[in-house]
Design a protein that fits this description.
Strand order of the largest sheet: 5-4-8-7-6
CATH topology of the largest domain: Beta-Lactamase
CATH architecture of the largest domain: 2-Layer Sandwich
Strand content: 15-25%
Order of helices and strands: HHEEEHHHHHEEHHEHEEH
Shape: globular
CATH class of the largest domain: Alpha Beta
Helix content: 25-40%
Oligomer: single chain
Length: 287
């Protein structure tokens, strides 16, 4: 099941619950599958588990030692297992994207859709400034993690932007806005964090002090266009994860040379479907 199919199933599920206020009620999501949420003492690295009872209902247990945002995500993740009919595989740590089984990643995508519903989240992204300050404010409003909020922020943005998750100094995941996909800005998964980049410096211990101008050639494969790129960073030291937000402070980028455009099409083919329509952009001030 690809990411778009998971997202569509999540939106169908959300429509049945019709959340109107923020943060959304994860108990309402659990109730939709006949689930009851309990907070209990679990093993240190155990997020949650669920079981179907003889009466057909579900018991969802979350780790009482975890913060509310992690518990809320865990509830939605367990709901995803039921709705998507994916058997749980919790042999790998939930915090490690690199070691996450495909089924668990699908449930994570579903959970993020539930916590940050498209109809409620997209208008706020459209009105937001660029930078992690804005993402942090949205994370507070939706009571969701910075990682989930940042990823969906980039996906739904009208601007030329990308969110990159690196773990152990290597790029593990990136989400890009439709306009950046159309600009053929490719970020290779598994590559090292660009040497001497703002993100690499923050990972090495430098304090994050707001957006900095960045070199597009460091981040995007075979980049040969003009444009002012900016980079903002947050480091999650506990898991050695680096969260990077990249964006161009331009409404449009110059098109690639004709030879380059043909090479990209031959090499990469058409862009993958992401469920988002391209919207006209407008430059946002940095925060």
């Amino acid at each position: 099941m690809d990411e778009l199919a998971v997202a569509m199933k999540a939106r169908d599920f959300i429509a049945k619950c019709s959340p109107l206020s923020l943060p959304v009620s994860v108990d309402a999501y659990a109730g939709q599958i006949g689930g009851v949420v309990k907070s209990e003492a679990l093993q240190e690295n155990e997020d949650a588990w669920s079981v179907q009872l003889p009466n057909g209902k579900y018991r969802i247990c979350v780790n009482c030692a975890h913060n509310s945002r992690r518990q809320r995500f865990s509830v939605c993740h367990e709901v995803a297992h039921v709705v998507l009919e994916i058997t749980a595989d919790h042999t790998s740590p939930s915090w490690s994207f690199a070691r996450r089984p495909p089924g668990e990643i699908a449930c994570d995508i579903f959970a993020a859709e539930l916590l940050l519903p498209h109809k409620l989240f997209k208008p706020r992204v459209d009105a937001a400034d660029m930078g992690f300050n804005a993402i942090s404010e949205l994370a507070d409003e939706f009571d969701a993690s910075l990682m989930s909020t940042g990823s969906r922020f980039a996906t739904f943005s009208r601007e030329l932007c990308a969110f990159v998750l690196s773990e152990g100094g290597k790029v593990r995941y990136s989400s890009r806005s439709t306009s950046l996909r159309d600009a053929r800005a490719w970020i290779r998964s598994g590559s090292d964090l660009p040497k001497d980049s703002y993100s690499a410096r923050v990972r090495a211990g430098e304090a994050s002090s707001g957006p900095e101008e960045a070199d597009p050639d460091q981040w995007f494969e075979d980049w040969d266009r003009e444009g002012s790129l900016y980079e903002d960073v947050r480091q999650l030291g506990q898991w050695d994860q680096t969260l990077t937000l990249l964006w161009f402070d331009d409404e449009n980028l110059p098109p690639p040379q004709a030879e380059r455009a043909r090479w990209e099409e031959d090499t990469y083919g058409l862009r993958e479907l992401d469920g988002n329509l391209p919207w006209p952009g407008k430059s946002k001030r940095r925060r």
